[in-house]
Design goal:
This protein has 148 residues and is an alpha+beta fold. 29% of the residues lie in helices and 27% in strands.
Length: 148
């Protein structure tokens, strides 16, 4: 899939450094660890219920990525596709890259038989609303640490 500026495709092992650069730029409440990323990245590429897409350009390499999973729920009457992470290089925003990544995830979700696509977002609500998502719930998390 082409956005005019970026090609959207399944991530490959060689994309790891580009995805790492974008993932660590996320505003997070905990530090991202490179060793953990290096273990997770190939595992996610290999998981049957996972999707890792990248947006690439000849000039920037990996300019965006998306990570999603499918899982079965009672309330959806079947599979749900959950978008875990979407990140676009700030220099590539407002050019359709995020929209193309979401469209790629929606196509994958349909192909897997998912009933709907869901995600949580703190800062990009207007973007997702513009793509047809509905504001549905509040997201809560509780870290499980070894010290707890």
């Amino acid at each position: 899939m082409e956005t005019g500026l970026a090609a959207i495709r399944a991530a490959e092992p060689s994309d790891a450094s580009g995805v790492w650069s974008l993932a660590r730029a996320f505003a997070t409440s905990f530090p991202l660890e490179r060793a953990a990323f290096d273990r997770s990245y190939p595992a996610l590429l290999a998981e049957a219920n996972s999707l890792v897409l990248v947006a690439t350009t000849p000039e920037r390499g990996v300019a965006g990525y998306l990570l999603a999973h499918t899982h079965t729920t009672f309330l959806a009457n079947g599979q749900v596709a959950w978008i875990e992470e979407v990140m676009v290089d700030p220099r590539m925003r407002l050019r359709g890259v995020g929209r193309a990544l979401i469209a790629g995830a929606e196509g994958w979700a349909r192909a897997t038989g998912a009933r709907h696509v869901a995600l949580a977002s703190r800062r990009a609500g207007p973007f997702y609303l513009a793509l047809g998502f509905e504001d549905s719930a509040t997201y809560f998390k509780k870290p499980l640490s070894e010290r707890a």
